[in-house]
């Protein structure tokens, strides 16, 4: 097969109103004369991961030469199966604010809780399953982290008086008139303070506004945080969001020069196409949104070919604050690996049971043959 056809096999075609070449296969023997048998050494050699942006709350990176099923597995695991801490129970002691208890509890539950990996691994999963007597399991130091929030709003002494032309800012009038996530304080129980080694759990984003108070109003509650995953409740999800898209390709089929080059450039987002030496040149296809605007122009629709690389995945991961964005991706790999190990052990157990069943059946057949032989001899 010509090399051009081989290269296009890996490209999803983008046309004015349709897409083409949307399916693919690497099944061994599908293409005559080509060996696509999966090989670990080839996979390691071809796999590429490159970070273009790596900040605590936002990472952008490419993963190249993996199957779409694996790429999507990473995305789904980052959203739904990377464990984190979140507030599960709120014991409201006093709430005289204008916010109802249930609404305030919901807001508290959505506050991201940051804790180190060692803490997360040490803590056990909290069981919500009722005991045989119907009671709810009690919290323990092994599965629950306790927080508290106690805020009282008071009027500042010597606060300025409002006038006909101005109203003082609440900061000048009141103390603790706004309740923030930073007001959630960790309350160690048992040996937790020692085990957390000077790095206690805390609100990942201290400036989240929870409520507003006025003099005399109080919010006091005890909060229990447990370990969980996003598939149980969105409050446990460490990302917001995690997504990927395929790398766009822009192939100029014939030179586009002069004023036409400037018009061609304007069909794409800034930085995708530049005019160099009076000719349009694709400089950064990563920034293309694949709007297909260029295909609306008669002068260009036969001069350019748009597509997406089938196995080039461009990830964008935004952390909610519990972990650094790149660490979330690494944890998703660990979760997928553990899933593979579980599947492997179950398959091995199944094969072992099948082998034992086959041996028993062969033993029964041999015993029956021996009995038949004895009858013949007699």
In short:
Belongs to the archaeal Rpo3/eukaryotic RPB3 RNA polymerase subunit family. With about 375 residues, this protein is an alpha+beta fold.
Over all CA atoms, what is the radius of gyration?
Answer: 31 Å
Helix/strand-derived category reads: alpha+beta
CATH homologous superfamily of the largest domain - what is it?
A: RNA polymerase, RBP11-like subunit
State the helicity in percent bands: 25-40%
Question: Which spans of ≥5 residues are poorly predicted at pLDDT below 50?
Answer: none
> Which whole number gives the mean pLDDT?
89
Shape: flat
The number of distinct helices, counting runs of at least 4 residues, comes to 9
Which CATH class of the largest domain?
A: Alpha Beta
Could you give the count of β-strands? 18
